[in-house]
């Protein structure tokens, strides 16, 4: 079942470098993850070192790293593990592991334009973003992901709607999160090529 989705993502990464897939994995999973994110404690203000951002006001979300503590997180991590193996098998890109966090943007929160990895930094190679928000209306709720090309031209705008999945090459696409007007839930993750620190 996932194989069709994996191959669609793989083909798009090769041809365009990115893909936006509404209704990607399943609304049950995105709803369960949303409920979980709303109940989990200990979200922390995202560190500026995470993306080596200089400006401390560049992002205003709060994050919590995923683990295997319950079924919904495991389902998502199993999906990304399968994708990692598929990408390695088809593209020989040697992804070593996946790391991901929930992110909550409160009303007024945003994330300025950034890259997830610098060219040839040899760490984050493929970015995955998965959205968890029911009934999101662009004009009313804001919070769109804006994806730019290397020349800073807008190439796409993504509504952070439940079960929408975005995958892109981390070094190729600057992107930003526009100001959210209400609480916005997502998971952001990265396939890496370096060795995991313990
Ligand atoms: C990030 C990011 C995008 C989003 O966390 O690096 O760009 O739409 N997130 O949440
Ligand atoms: Mn990012």
Keywords summarizing the entry:
four-stranded antiparallel beta sheet; seven-stranded antiparallel beta sheet; 29% strand; 4 helices; Jelly Rolls; binds N-oxalylglycine; alpha+beta
Q: What hetero molecules are in the model?
A: N-oxalylglycine, manganese (II) ion
- What overall geometry do the principal axes of the alpha carbons give? globular
Annotated CATH homologous superfamily: q2cbj1_9rhob like domain
By CATH, the topology is Jelly Rolls
In CATH, the architecture is: Sandwich
Oligomer: single chain
Q: Biggest β-sheet: count, sense, barrel?
A: 7 strands, antiparallel
Number of strands: 11
Strand percentage lies at 25-35%
Which CATH class is shown? Answer: Mainly Beta
Our measurement of the CA-to-CA distance between the termini, rounded to an integer number of angstroms, reads 33 Å
Low-confidence stretches: none
Q: Mean of residue pLDDT? A: 93
Report the structural category. alpha+beta
The number of helical elements comes to 4
Describe the structure.
The strands form 2 sheets. The protein has a 7-stranded antiparallel β-sheet with strand order 1-9-6-11-4-3-2, with helices on one face. Strands 5-10-7-8 form a 4-stranded antiparallel β-sheet, with no helix packed on it. It contains 4 helices and 11 strands. The chain has one domain: Jelly Rolls (Sandwich), CATH 2.60.120.620. With 198 residues, the chain is α+β, with helices and mostly antiparallel strands. Helix content is 26%, strand content 29%. N-oxalylglycine (OGA) binds next to strand 10 and strand 11.
